[in-house]
Amino acid sequence: MGPHPAVADVRRAVREALADVPQGASVLVACSGGADSLALAAALGFVAPRAGLRAGLLTVDHQLQPGSAERARTVAEVGSGELGLDPAEVLTVEVGTAGGPEAAAREARYGALAAAADRLGADAVLLGHTRDDQAETVLLGLARGSGPRSLSGMAAVSGRYRRPFLDLPRATTVAACAALGLAPWDDPHNDDPRFTRVRVRRKVLPVLEAELGPGVADALARTARLAREDADALDIWAGSAYTDCALSDIAAPGKPVELSVAKLEKLPDAVRRRVLRRAALAAGAPSGALSATHVLAVDRLVTRWRGQKAVDLPGGLTAVRRYGTLILAITPIP
């Protein structure tokens, strides 16, 4: 008799996600102890030795709740014990306040994971985001109005990070843990309405399912895949266009960037604005502070030129048009 269907599903997802990883490579799983990441860790523990891979576990203690250190140790013990993952480490982090609690915790977590992956020589780090997480991400992006890249949600592969469960519902990971006799930890933060994602999960998605019928999460995840394909194609086009429009050395980050207005004018809006964003980042604008509003203001120097003044951008950057050239540089522009 074969494994429970949910167990077979999570194992298959991990096996497919690691199909291109060479034998002997090291793979780590980020595990909080929740159902999604616990099912992922169990699946990796099963798949890795059969694929000739070395597998370990990382769990992050954010120190934000009483007893977090003990819970993290328990997760590591489960990883090194019944799941057969070695090493199984606890990464203790200090969470700041910049960008709000969710963003600060995420920044601390990913910083710790990246440092551990470098130290351990890992080829891949698996993350337990599911189709439900993807649906929530798309809704949050839609609410921000930040364009197709935001609507494209999370990538299945992003550098060393891989998300094998993006096509699986959260219910599958819960069922897999139950079938394997694993006891997930329910993080109280997952039910805390102070967090925007929790409100989307507990209130917004259920209303959509009730009013529009079942399958909303699947439809949103499918939308993310389609949006990502389109956004990737536009980014590739914009990369070529950026090189074509450049009148300065764009390979020198932090230096002034000069672009041909005549060539910019010929580009479709979506491509031109991507070129302008690339130019601003290359000239020194911080990515987290550069908004769509800033890019649109620079775009008006190209498409609605009336002799207007320079546009101020984050990071002390200025964009100005001079004699058919768009210049982006740290103030003052020479």
UniProtKB/TrEMBL annotation:
Compartments, record wording: Cytoplasm
A GO MF label: tRNA(Ile)-lysidine synthase activity
InterPro entries noted in UniProt: Rossmann-like_a/b/a_fold (IPR014729), TilS/TtcA_N (IPR011063), tRNA_Ile_lys_synt (IPR012094), tRNA_Ile_lys_synt_N (IPR012795), tRNA_Ile_lys_synt_subst-bd (IPR015262)
Pfam families linked to this entry: ATP_bind_3, TilS
Record-annotated tRNA(Ile)-lysidine/2-thiocytidine synthase N-terminal domain positions: 27-202
Catalytically driven reaction(s): cytidine(34) in tRNA(Ile2) + L-lysine + ATP = lysidine(34) in tRNA(Ile2) + AMP + diphosphate + H(+)
Gene Ontology process terms (BP): tRNA modification
Enzyme Commission designation: 6.3.4.19
Protein family per UniProt: Belongs to the tRNA(Ile)-lysidine synthase family.
Functional note: Ligates lysine onto the cytidine present at position 34 of the AUA codon-specific tRNA(Ile) that contains the anticodon CAU, in an ATP-dependent manner. Cytidine is converted to lysidine, thus changing the amino acid specificity of the tRNA from methionine to isoleucine.
Protein's recorded name: tRNA(Ile)-lysidine synthase
Species assigned in the record: Nonomuraea maritima
Gene (name only): tilS
